[in-house]
Write a structure and sequence with these properties.
With 457 residues, the protein is of the alpha/beta class. The chain has helices at 43-46, 51-59, 91-94, 112-115, 144-158, 171-176, 181-191, 208-221, 259-266, 291-297, 321-332, 342-354; strands at residues 2-10, 13-21, 35-38, 64-71, 77-79, 163-168, 202-205, 227-232, 241-244, 247-250, 271-274, 301-302, 336-339. The chain binds calcium ion (CA).
Length: 457
């Protein structure tokens, strides 16, 4: 496939539009109903949440593109993962003195015009991702409307439906500032024609009470009926808080994972999402063996996060990114994954569809879930993607690697060996340096690969 890059410079900032010129048919994720969700767009290839990254994720054949949404001081909805601007922009350089007492620069304290002056930077320096020395690139924080405009345009020119997967971030924090982010997001979605269950959109949020409000009050008032996804945090995260006796306390999600909790949810929720470590422990054992099948029996999909190909991000039981995908898609039985490497995941599913089904998991792997493999229709061989999906990791790693990764093509399904239960000494845990608790700390430049966040939706 031949990609051409059109660079348009206009009024001080660069809009880089990636257009896939197709010498081969457009390729899309496939393998039954399994889907690929581009986590923060094509964030593993071209930084998170910017318009070129969205175009790239679309061109790579992602089924859904994720947008994290927060609001500005002047009530605009922008695509930004954190409520703060520090981690991914040069805000501290441009607007010194505008941080709050906690030292962070909140998007809620800046107008859209101010935020548009900022330039994005790769949040994981020296990680092997897009070069963080991109000062001339000048990518900007997109608004939600800009992103939808781009996606609707590409839908027309590429003649396909492109799924979107917006997340309403921290309604409690916005409410503290007098802002109703859910209403603002729904109005924009309606403006761009996302109104019904048949539309290719999942609307996600960590806040169970807010999702109930969206379903019971907001969507009926706007004559909308979108598919909703309940994200499940661990109880130490900051995603959802409520004011109790004058103090902001974390939401307790324990009730949701029970069958009765899932049944309650299923009355108005189309699916659930959670960190993959909430489903499988470090040894590859299922922590809640019945959770996925329970959700399916109640008509809900399961979309865990976040799948990354860097060696530091692979759990000990997965020898490669492809082994990890094989395990979750076809053994744990999830319906889709959020991944920074949407192109690799799309290619994996295409190869998986074209290949014969792997052999039955041997008895020695009794810790693996015995979930049925999705039926597969024979597919023609996939057209190669423009992005190399099997290149060796260029990043030198100082962290111990649990299982040597063969330089051979990674795409070959690793049939019967699903999780690599590693008898060797356990590797050092991946530091959760940029977890939800401290998302915006500038990571020190490391000589080797910088640690990537783990539990960070
Ligand atoms: Ca998210």
């Amino acid at each position: 496939m031949d990609y051409k890059i059109l660079i348009i410079k206009s009024s001080g900032w660069i809009f880089l539009l990636l257009t896939a010129l197709l010498t081969a048919p457009v390729v899309f994720a496939q393998a039954g109903d399994k889907i690929v969700i581009a986590h923060r767009a094509a964030s593993g290839y071209l930084m998170e949440h910017n318009l070129p990254s969205v175009a790239l994720a679309v061109a790579m054949g992602s089924d859904y593109i994720e947008q994290d949404l927060v609001m500005t001081k002047d009530d605009q909805v922008i695509v930004l993962h954190d409520p703060t601007l520090d981690r991914v922009t040069n805000v501290a350089e441009l607007f010194p003195g505008r941080a709050r007492q906690d030292g962070k620069f909140y998007a809620l304290d800046f107008t859209l015009a101010e935020i548009k002056q900022l330039h994005l930077k790769e949040p994981y320096p020296n990680s092997g991702r897009f070069p963080d020395t991109n000062t001339n690139l000048q990518l900007a924080v997109p608004t939600f409307k800009e992103e939808l405009e781009l996606i609707r345009g590409l839908e027309k020119t590429m003649r396909k439906d492109i799924g979107i997967y917006p997340e309403i971030k921290q309604p409690w924090l916005h409410r503290k500032e007098g802002k109703d982010i859910s209403m603002a997001v729904l109005k924009i979605l309606r403006e761009y024609g996302f109104t019904g269950k048949e539309d290719k959109i999942y609307l996600q949020c960590f806040d169970p009470d807010e999702l109930k409000r969206i379903h019971d009050e907001l969507m009926p008032a706007l004559q909308m009926e979108l598919k909703l996804i309940q994200l499940i945090d661990d109880n130490n995260g900051n995603e959802t808080k409520s004011l109790q006796w004058g103090e902001w306390v974390n939401y307790n999600y324990d009730w949701i994972s029970s069958k009765s909790g899932l049944r309650t949810l299923s009355a108005y929720i189309s699916g659930i999402g959670m960190d993959k470590s909430m489903l499988v422990d470090e040894a590859g054992n299922l922590l809640r063996p019945e959770l996925v099948s329970d959700a399916h029996s109640l008509g809900m999909v399961v979309h865990p996060y976040t799948f990354r190909r860097e060696k530091e991000s692979l759990p000990p039981y997965a020898a490669s990114f492809e082994a990890l995908l094989e395990f979750f898609y076809f053994k744990v039985g999830v319906d889709g994954v959020f991944t920074d490497y949407c192109g690799d995941a799309v290619f994996f599913l295409q190869k998986r569809s074209a290949a014969p089904a792997p052999a039955t998991v041997p008895a020695s792997s009794e810790t693996l879930p015995a979930q049925p493999t999705a039926p597969e229709a024979p597919q023609p061989p996939a057209a190669p993607l423009a992005v190399p999906v099997s290149r060796p990791d260029l990043t030198p790693s100082s962290a111990p690697v649990p299982v040597a990764e063969p330089p051979a093509p990674m795409i070959t399904p690793e049939p019967a060996q699903a999780p690599t239960l590693d008898p060797a000494p356990a590797p050092a845990p991946v530091p959760e340096a940029a977890g939800e608790a401290a998302p915006d700390r500038v990571q020190p430049a490391a000589p080797a690969s910088a640690p990537l966040e783990v539990k960070y939706q």
